[in-house]
């Protein structure tokens, strides 16, 4: 199969050739013809599967081939994303795909001055990438009209709900024409999202290119158990031992990010941090420098967990486990992208055993434990498995058998293939508000 056989026009094929895309990925093979045919879409695709091109290519083609010229302060296609970084990244991909088409594209997001964005919107934009809050600001200040809008894309929809954008989404939805095409993309599909999809989509085609809630199998995942206070020391030890070159590290809090960056920098290690308290320009600079390998260790809160495409990132370290189990999948999705292999290491302390258990249930695998000599925890992390069982009491150590045969060896946990263990409800569920949308009849013209 080629992009030409999917029905893409020559200017797009030329852009893809320049980018070196030869074969459509599975999500692209399914999404492109469906979007071209005007269908609504509900697509569950793993991160790194090429979903951006899956919606952007057919969208650009429809904009180039159909519909009126864009009017002042109007927008014909809208891509909503949860974070500023993702807005930049998606827009950059769109810009490259649209290189040979006479279309105007742009990205708007908060944290930067609104005036240049208002100026730019005056002459109209065919395709706009936006974060929900800034989009609403622009709409309320009459810098944007939606009467020409033909397509809405929700990218990382579950993350938008996690980040508390449900009210903004409901308000945006109210302002949009009822007759339009809607594409909903998400790396994970929770029940809340399925509910949202039921309210927003019109006879959608469901695409699921990977098992539900299972991380990319190109990522080798393991955990090291350690006492909480020794995590920084263990991190530095593993870094030196493994001769880590480029690592994306996730910490739970903004203070946690700052403390680790400070410690690493104090040791002469080239590290930087990104989190929500930092100005947008500083965040973007740190990310750009990390992508260029000018920064070796980038420490981030979950702000950076979603959607960021960093080429050939070999290693992700969870300095702290995420509070919401689904974020684990997004975090480790930063490595092992587009078919390359990657590694994800989590430093786990006793306090985090319930988080670990929730992750194992969600991903339906028991994470392999690898203990680091000299860092064995005083506060033991109870054994867990993919069924959600936490074995609270430490097992009595068996007496070593005289005949050998592995007795007395530490239980390293069981590797299971995804799907082997029965899926169960995670014990830790994200708390989300689901917006209630006014669903009028919507039919796209054939
Ligand atoms: P995404 O999942 O959209 O973030 O894409 C992940 C990465 O795969 C990006 O760097 C894309 O440029 C790249 N990519 C997407 N589609 C293809 C393709 N068909 N062939 C090669 N690379 C691709």
Characterization of the model:
- The protein has helices at 10-19, 26-36, 51-65, 84-97, 115-121, 132-140, 157-162, 166-175, 191-200, 231-242, 254-266, 280-291, 325-332, 353-363, and strands at residues 41-44, 75-80, 105-108, 125-130, 151-154, 181-186, 205-208, 219-225, 247-250, 271-274, 297-300, 315-318, 342-348, 368-369, 383-384, 390-391.
- The chain is of the alpha/beta class and 446 residues long.
- The protein has 14 helices and 16 strands.
- Helix 13 (325-332) crosses helix 14 (353-363).
- The model is unreliable at 401-446 (pLDDT under 50).
- The strands form 3 sheets. Strands 3-4-2-5-6-1-7 form a 7-stranded parallel β-sheet, with helices on both faces. Strands 10-11-9-12-13-8-14 form a 7-stranded parallel β-sheet, sandwiched between helices. Strands 15-16 form a two-stranded antiparallel ribbon.
- The protein is globular, with a radius of gyration of 23 Å.
- The protein has 2 domains: 4-208, P-loop containing nucleotide triphosphate hydrolases (Rossmann fold, 3-Layer(aba) Sandwich); 219-391, Rossmann fold, CATH 3.40.50.
- Adenosine monophosphate binds at residues 21, 23-25, 28, 47-53, 309, 337-338.
């Amino acid at each position: 199969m080629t992009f030409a056989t999917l029905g893409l026009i020559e200017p797009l094929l030329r852009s893809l050739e320049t980018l070196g895309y030869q074969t459509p990925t599975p999500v692209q093979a399914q999404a492109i013809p469906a979007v071209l045919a005007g269908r609504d879409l509900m697509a569950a695709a793993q991160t790194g599967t090429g979903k951006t091109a899956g919606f952007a290519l057919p969208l650009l083609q429809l904009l180039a081939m159909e519909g009126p010229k864009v009017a002042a302060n109007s927008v014909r296609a809208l891509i909503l994303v949860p974070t500023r970084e993702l807005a930049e990244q998606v827009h950059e991909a769109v810009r490259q795909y649209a290189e040979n088409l006479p279309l105007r594209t742009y990205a708007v997001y908060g944290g930067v001055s609104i005036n240049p964005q208002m100026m730019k919107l005056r002459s109209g934009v065919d395709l706009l990438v936006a974060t929900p809050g800034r989009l609403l600001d622009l709409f309320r200040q009459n810098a944007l009209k939606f009467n020409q809008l033909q397509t809405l894309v929700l990218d990382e929809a579950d993350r938008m709900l996690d980040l508390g954008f449900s009210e903004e989404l409901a308000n945006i939805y109210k302002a949009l024409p009822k007759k339009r095409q809607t594409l909903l993309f998400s790396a994970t599909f929770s029940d809340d999202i399925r509910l949202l999809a039921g309210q927003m989509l019109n006879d959608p085609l469901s695409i699921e290119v990977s098992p539900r809630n299972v991380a990319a199998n190109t990522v080798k995942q393991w955990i090291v158990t350690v006492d909480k206070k020794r995590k920084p020391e263990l991190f530095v030890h593993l870094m030196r031992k493994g001769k880590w070159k480029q690592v994306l590290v996730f910490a739970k809090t903004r203070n946690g990010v700052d403390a680790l960056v400070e410690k690493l920098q104090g040791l002469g290690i080239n590290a930087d941090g990104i989190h929500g308290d930092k100005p947008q320009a500083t965040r973007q600079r740190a990310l750009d420098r990390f992508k260029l390998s000018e920064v070796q260790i980038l420490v981030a809160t979950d702000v950076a967990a979603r959607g960021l495409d960093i080429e050939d990132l070999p290693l992700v370290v969870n300095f702290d486990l995420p509070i919401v189990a689904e974020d684990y999948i997004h975090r480790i999705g930063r490595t092992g992208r587009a078919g390359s292999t990657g590694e994800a290491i989590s430093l786990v302390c006793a306090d985090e055993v319930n988080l670990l258990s929730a992750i194992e249930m969600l991903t339906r695998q028991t994470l392999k434990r690898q203990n680091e000599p000299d860092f064995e925890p005083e506060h033991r992390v109870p054994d867990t498995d993919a069924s959600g069982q936490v074995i609270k009491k430490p097992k009595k150590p068996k007496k070593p058998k005289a005949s050998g045969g592995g007795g007395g060896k530490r239980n390293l946990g069981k590797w299971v293939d995804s799907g082997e263990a029965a899926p169960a409800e995670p014990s830790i569920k994200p708390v989300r508000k689901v917006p209630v949308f006014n669903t009028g009849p919507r039919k796209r013209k054939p």
